[in-house]
C-alpha cells in the first residue's frame, strides 16, 4: 500500500513537472515549492522502491530542467558503483548540456552538488579532460552575470589544471569578477587561476590573482593563502624582478603576521635574487631544493633562475649600444659566448629585447623599442583602455553611493558617531526598521 | 712653495682643450708650471701650524698611521716634547709606550715628572674646589662662573674631557653677558671636537650664533670652521663646503687649537669640488675673494680646482693623487678621502662627456690616465645610476649621448598607470564584496 502510494505520488510529481515546466514564472515558482516539499519523497533509502533514475526517462532535461535536476540529484545521492559511474557521468554531462539556465538557477545548491558529483566521478575515472567542457557549460549557465563568481568556478579550474587544458581555463579567467559569495570559493578560484596563468606563462595575470588571495580579508590564516603566498613570491620575481616583503595596508593583520613564517625558503630566494648574481641564486636554490620540490614549485623556481639571466641581459641594453657576446657571457655569468648567443636569440624571439646579432664579429647590437605609439591599433588600444577605466570609475562611484545608503553601514556608523560627537545633531537613527 | 709662472697657463692652445690633457706629457711641457710632486709631509712644519691638545693628537695620529718609521719617530718625539710642556700624564704614558725606547734615554718614561705633575694637579684641584665652594656660598655669579671655567680648563689640561665639558656647560647658568655665553660655547665646542662628539658642536655653534651682537669677525670665522668640521664628520659635504667657504680671512692664526688656515682651504676646496656643480664652483670658490686668501696657502688645491674647472682632468687627478698620501694622515679628513676622491672623479667623468654627442673612449681613457676596459666599467656604473645619459658602443669603443624620447616614455607611463589603476580598483571592488558578504554573515548570525 505504502509502496504504491509513494510510487503514485512520485508519478504525480512527474506529471506536475511535465505540466508546469512550460508555464509562466509563477508556475515555475509553484513547481519549485512542490519539489521542495517532496524532497524526502525522492530521497528514500528504501532500495525496494524504484530509484528516481527510472523516472528520468519520462522527463525532458531541456524542458523540465528543474524537475529533472531534483530527480537527478536524488538518484546520484545514493552510492554509485564503479561500473555505474561512467553512465552517471555521461547522464549528468548530457543534462548540463541540455538544461535551461533560468530553471536551474532557481535551485543553485542542487545544481552545484550535482556538478560536484560529476567532477568526483570524472576524477575517479581518472579522465579529468572529460569533465572540462561540461563544467565550462555548467559555469556559464549558473552565472547570473559574467561578473559573478560561482562555487563551480574553482572546480572547473581544478579540472583544467589536472587535465592540463590551460587555455580553456584562461578563457574563464579573462572575465572580471566583482561579486563574490563565498570566501573559500574566491581563494580557490584565485589560487587555481594563478597556477593556470603560470602554466600559460602569463605572469602578470598570475601575479594579480595571487595578490588578491594574499591580501583578501580573512579572519584566520588558511592553507590556500599560505600556498598562494609562496607562489606569489616566485611570480613577482619573474614578472617584476623584485619582491617587497612589506604588505599593502589593506592586507589583513592575520596574513601580515603569519604568512612569512611559512615561506622562509622563498623569502631567502627573493633576497638572493636581489643581489643580481646568478651564483648566489643557484646556491640558494640548491640549498632549499627539497622544500621547493615538496611544494611542487620546483618548475617555477627554475623559471625564476632563467628570468634572472634575462633581467641581467636587459640591464645591459640600458648601457650598451653594441656589445660582444664574450662580454655578455662574462657580465651575466654564462659559461660561453655560445650560451649567450642562445639566450639573446631566445629573448629576441620572445620579444623581450630588440637586438640584432652579428655572427661574423660576434657582436650584438641593441636597438630601440620600435613602438612609436603612432599606429591605429595603438590609438584604439588607448581609446578602449580609457573607456574601460571610465566604466570602472563609474562602477566604483556607484558602489560608493550604494554603500552609503546601505542600512547596515548607516546603523554602524550612526552608532559610532553618536558615541563620540555630542554636539553633532545630525541625527542618524540608531536602529533602522529593516 | 715655489712661485708659479701663470703666463704659460693663460696662453692655452685650442689643442689643449680637445686633447683634454690627452697627449698628457706634451701638454705639460707647454705649460711652464711644474706640478708639485707629492713630497713627504714635513712633520715639523705641519705641527707648527697647531697648538694645544690638537697638536699632540695630530702628531700621535700621524705616528699611528704613517708607514715611514723615521716620520713616525719624528712625530712621536715632537709629541713627547709637547706633552712635557703640558700636564696630561695619561697621554704621556701612552706616548712613552709607543716610543718604546727607540728614541734614546731622553725620551723614556719619566716617573719623577709624572708624579710631580700628578701631585701638583691634586693640589690645584683641591684649591679650585675650595675656591668654588666659597664662591657658591657667597653666591657671586661671576666668580662661580670663573670657578667652573677654571675647573673646565684644569680638566681639559689633564685630559679628562668629559669632566671638562660638564664644567664648561655648567657655567651657562652663571653667564651674564653675551660675551660670556660665546666664551662658554667656544670652550664647549673645543672640547666636543676633541671628544669627537660633533652633534654638540653643531648645537653650540648655533647657540653662539644666536647670541645677539657678541659675535665679532674672528669669533664668527671660528664658528664657521667648527660648523664646517661638524658637517664634514657627518658626511654632509655640500654644507661643510659652504661653511668653510664662508669663513672670513680674519681667522688667520686665531684658531690653531682646532684648525689651521691651510686646513680650511683643503677641506673647503675638496668638499666643494666633490659636491658643487659648475656654477656654484665658479661663484663660490673661484670668484670668492675671501677664500682666495686661504687658497694662497695651499696652491695645490687652488691649482687642482682651476684644472677641474678648465677641464684639465689629467693634471687635476694627478694633483689629487699626490695629495692623497698626506691627506690620509689628517685627523679629520682621513676617512672621507676615498669618498671625496670618488665623487670628484665621477664628476670629472660626467663633466667630460656632457658637452659631446659622441666621445672616443680611447682619447678619454688617455685623458683620465686609465685603461679602456677600466673606463668602460666606470662609465657603465655611472650610466646605470643615470648620471650620464649615454650608450656605449663597445665594438667601436665610442660613447654616444642618448636623450630619452619623452613622447614614447610618456605613452608607456600612461599605459602602465592605466593598467595599475585597473588592477587596483578591481581588487578593491573584490575586497569590498568579500567584506560585505562577511559582514552580512555576521549580521545575520547576530540576528538569530
TrEMBL record, chain A:
Species of origin: Coffea arabica
The protein's name: COP9 signalosome complex subunit 3
GO biological process: ubiquitin-dependent protein catabolic process
One Gene Ontology cellular component annotation held by this UniProt entry: COP9 signalosome
Residues annotated as domain PCI: 202-371
Family indicated by similarity: Belongs to the CSN3 family.
Keyword Lyase appears in the UniProt entry: no
Primary site of residence: cytoplasm
UniProt-annotated location(s): Cytoplasm; Nucleus
Pfam family, one: COP9_hel_rpt
Domain of life: Eukaryota
Alphabetically ordered keywords of this record: Cytoplasm, Nucleus, Signalosome
Keyword Transit peptide: no
UniProtKB/TrEMBL annotation, chain B:
Repeat listed as a keyword: no
Gene Ontology terms describing biological process: embryo development ending in seed dormancy; hyperosmotic response; protein deneddylation; protein-containing complex assembly; response to absence of light; response to salt stress
Coiled-coil intervals: 118-145
Keyword Metal-binding on entry: no
Top-rank taxon, per record: Eukaryota
CC annotations in GO: COP9 signalosome; cytoplasm
Keyword line: Coiled coil, Cytoplasm, Nucleus, Signalosome
Subcellular location: Cytoplasm; Nucleus
Similarity comment text for this entry: Belongs to the CSN1 family.
Protein name: PCI domain-containing protein
